[in-house]
């Protein structure tokens, strides 16, 4: 049934699965109220990423709305550079989101290993991210959490945007979480919209090219001050056109920020730095990626960090579920 779902244009269907239908193989990541596991559907060769979230912690930390929103948004999108949600389910203890397993790991790991990316490497990834953000914005979705940790590389090295916990459906300008990526309007509580994603793209392009973000400090408030001051010190090796694009994305006045003008994302795609990019071939995944992750089998985890495993969480259960009604769409 999952194979059918993967070829469908609709994500997030529910199939009545339960945790015991899957073999949990390894932790791929951890968070405040859950883990992401590599898992395998028993009796099949298929591997998936299972996001397992503890209900009691989600409720305690007042994240119910975020979790339900993440599920609903992922279930509504289908795009080559966004992770696919295959199905969701719940039991007395947890809610589960079963997603495609993106075998290449986080861009964060590849960037730290490389130190910094070349101009051409950065352009490739920035172009794919631009297409993903433009797609989300066309559906009135702002992502709000762009950072290297939330960008995965698939087996061919193409981008997969993941973790939609802070994504939000907006209409025009309503109302991340990494401090270095916050736009001025978020810090100043002015209300924010799609322009915050283009600010974050500017931060990301700088970090890919430099190996560090443009605004950093040992104290979060120091970072806030530097963001609001808006002074960017570019390393000498930066391409002049890349510098120009970054400056136009990191414009504190969102009414003048590239991507938030009359022609939207097209203004970014038409920028001189992207000259020569075949956007249709890129969308069709016909351009060879600069990093092709090493992968010898579908369940290969070599591109992910190792985490201490827990043995009691997946098998433990409780008899009563006071929170089921809060996650009725799972």
TrEMBL record:
PANTHER family: CAMP-DEPENDENT PROTEIN KINASE CATALYTIC SUBUNIT PRKX (PTHR24353:SF37), CYCLIC NUCLEOTIDE-DEPENDENT PROTEIN KINASE (PTHR24353). Belongs to the protein kinase superfamily. ATP binds at residue 51. Keywords: ATP-binding, Kinase, Nucleotide-binding, Serine/threonine-protein kinase, Transferase. One of its GO terms (molecular function) is protein serine/threonine kinase activity. Residues 22-274 form the Protein kinase domain. Its EC number is 2.7.11.11. SMART domains: S_TK_X (SM00133), S_TKc (SM00220). SUPFAM superfamilies: Protein kinase-like (PK-like). It catalyses: L-seryl-[protein] + ATP = O-phospho-L-seryl-[protein] + ADP + H(+); L-threonyl-[protein] + ATP = O-phospho-L-threonyl-[protein] + ADP + H(+). It comes from Polyrhizophydium stewartii. PROSITE patterns: AGC_KINASE_CTER, PROTEIN_KINASE_ATP, PROTEIN_KINASE_DOM, PROTEIN_KINASE_ST. Residues 275-330 form the AGC-kinase C-terminal domain. This is cAMP-dependent protein kinase. It is an enzyme of class 2 (transferase). InterPro entries: AGC-kinase_C, Kinase-like_dom_sf, Prot_kinase_dom, Protein_kinase_ATP_BS, Ser/Thr_kinase_AS. Pfam families: Pkinase.
């Amino acid at each position: 049934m999952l194979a059918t779902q993967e070829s469908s244009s609709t994500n997030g269907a529910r199939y009545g699965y339960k945790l015991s239908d899957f073999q949990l193989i390894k932790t791929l990541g951890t968070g405040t109220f859950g883990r992401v596991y590599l898992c395998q559907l028993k009796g099949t060769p298929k591997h998936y990423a299972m996001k397992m979230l503890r209900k009691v912690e989600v409720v305690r930390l007042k994240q119910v709305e975020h979790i339900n929103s993440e599920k609903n948004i992922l279930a509504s999108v289908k795009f080559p550079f966004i992770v696919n949600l295959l199905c969701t389910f719940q039991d007395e203890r947890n809610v589960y989101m079963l997603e495609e397993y993106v075998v290449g790991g986080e861009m964060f790991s590849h960037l730290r290993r490389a130190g910094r990316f070349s101009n051409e490497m950065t352009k490739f990834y920035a172009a794919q991210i631009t297409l993903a953000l433009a797609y989300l914005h066309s559906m009135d979705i702002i992502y709000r959490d762009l950072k290297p940790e939330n960008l995965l590389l698939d087996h061919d090295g193409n981008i997969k945007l993941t973790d939609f916990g802070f994504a939000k459906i907006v209409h025009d300008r309503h109302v991340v979480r990494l401090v270095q990526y916050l736009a001025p309007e978020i810090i100043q509580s002015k209300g924010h919209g799609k322009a915050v994603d283009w600010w974050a793209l500017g931060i990301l392009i700088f970090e890919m090219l430099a190996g560090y973000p443009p605004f950093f400090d040992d104290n979060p408030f120091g970072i806030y001050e530097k963001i609001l001051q808006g002074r960017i010190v570019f390393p000498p090796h930066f391409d002049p056109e890349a510098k120009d694009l970054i400056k136009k994305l990191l414009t504190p006045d969102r009414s003048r920020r590239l991507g938030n003008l009359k022609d939207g994302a097209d203004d970014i795609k038409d920028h001189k730095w992207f000259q020569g990019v075949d956007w249709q071939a890129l969308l069709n995944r016909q351009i060879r990626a600069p990093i092709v992750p090493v992968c010898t089998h579908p369940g290969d985890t070599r591109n992910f960090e190792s985490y201490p495993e827990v043995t009691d969480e997946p098998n433990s259960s409780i008899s009563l579920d006071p929170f089921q009604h809060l996650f009725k769409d799972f």
